[in-house]
Amino acid sequence: MISRENLEKALELQQQSFVSSGPQDKAVQKRKLLGEILIENNFVTEEQLLSAFARHCRIPYIKLNKYGLPKDALKSVPENLIIKHKVMPVDRLVQC
Question: How much is the pTM?
């Protein structure tokens, strides 16, 4: 849980921060993402942030490094769809 004080500090830092994206000749200045600032300043851990996003989106949070990915689940979705939609099948439900 992040304190109100730390959140306000992070929002201040975000207002002051810009990062360049793209080639130098066409660099675009963008504000840093709030999540990046929260993690960089140790206000939250990456896991806490990801868990909060998952709760907000009402989806389960799964730590993939501790979750065995069944090969049949991986093979059930074509690779081009995984890349195009940036998804990862983590389990396969057997239809009756």
Answer: 0.64
